[in-house]
């Protein structure tokens, strides 16, 4: 439900058929950012009574929504990556005869009849392919609208059309032998017909859906094996309400996917990672060199060097922030923390805490080891439960009131969603959406910092007191890595191991 009064104009939201669980959450975030009042309406379906129709059904590609005007629809298209198009609704019906009757009664098309309006028609079908001949027949059936202007395939003032929604079911057999795709409203799979005017964006602003191709990993100059795909990065940027004058931070920046997406919406971004090699890239620029590498290379490719403020190397649990400077420092934290499937989480320190040095190591030439350009500090495994706990504390210290924390957590699909979502006294849950991978998935969590929180001290680790002397990644029976891969590889038996001499004898 939107804030403000009830908008009077009814529109059809046409969503892309990917990431169904994310479409409504992203739409709501986009509407909140632009300040658009909206109200989702029950979307009719054939054979379903109006009182039983569902509002906001994410399983269907079309959704009815009330908006203030066309400008609000255009701004949503520019912001929401899950939206393919927005149509002003003229009529909806179960059959074409009923659709024509309602269209003649409402006459929404009347204002476009004058000759100075150019036009074109679109007939789109979901879950079925129709012939050009049938498209032409449908268009000719609307000849009573009698548009006097010229037809124009590009840059027309009016684009009107029919959206046919079909269910995913087996094609019925036709008694006359006619192709099932030509049955029209006699097809039992038909769910609903929508007639309307397509909203067009003439502002020149790049729609959010076009950013998916622009940020495509296949075209990016610098990527890693855990780089976030472009569509999910844009969704995360939307959930964080990224925009001009906003400062976004990613404490697990890696190759910078979230930084680029947030900056595409006009925000400023700052990234950090425990492994500086991920930020700098494999082939770092020589001392004093100007050649961009790593995250800076892709930022240069997208023209975002001025918006990505910098990247720093540090452990989130040992953050260098001063307590006097961090209170309300960032507007959003957007991150994809490692959770042990493709990359394991790490934190500073040695596995054996008894061998941890407190003083710097001096090299034979008198230089300090940690000041060398190729120095890599020792790290140890980081349990997922502790990582999430520390991330929430870290975000509570850095975020402004009403600032958002957007992050991923893995989940087994048989788990109850409500019990797997982390909570914190300083945060309120905004949304959670599941990306399903079959046996397991990952859930995108969006939290908003409460406004009634007092000054929070700088983030410090609170779990070190309970750590064992020898830390292991597999500690705890409920650790996610153990549940995804419960059966580690068994060592080969001695009988299966051949010596070098035996192998040589077989070869010769």
Features:
disordered C terminus; alpha/beta; Rossmann fold; 508 residues; 17 strands; VC0802-like; seven-stranded mixed β-sheet; 24% strand
Description:
The protein has two domains: 9-198, VC0802-like (2-Layer Sandwich); 211-475, Vaccinia Virus protein VP39 (Rossmann fold, 3-Layer(aba) Sandwich), CATH 3.40.50. Helix 6 (230-239) packs across helix 7 (257-264). The termini are far apart. By secondary structure, it is of the alpha/beta class. The chain has 14 helices and 17 strands. It is elongated and about 90 Å long.
Overall domain count: 2
Query: What is the average per-residue confidence, as pLDDT, rounded to a whole number?
Result: 82
Largest sheet composition = 8 strands, mixed
Do you know the CATH topology of the largest domain?
A: Rossmann fold
Distance N to C terminus: 77 Å
**Estimated helix fraction:** 10-25%
Quaternary structure: single chain
Instruction: Indicate the overall shape.
Output: elongated
Q: What's the CATH H-level superfamily name of the largest domain?
A: Vaccinia Virus protein VP39
Give the structural class.
Answer: alpha/beta
Which architecture name of the largest domain does CATH use?
3-Layer(aba) Sandwich
Outline of the structure:
The protein has helices at residues 20-34, 70-79, 96-106, 132-141, 208-214, 230-239, 257-264, 276-280, 294-301, 323-326, 384-398, 417-420, 480-484, 500-507, and strands spanning 9-15, 38-43, 54-55, 62-67, 83-93, 119-126, 158-166, 190-198, 247-250, 268-273, 308-313, 330-335, 346-348, 379-381, 399-412, 427-436, 440-449. With 508 residues, it is α/β, with parallel strands linked by helices.
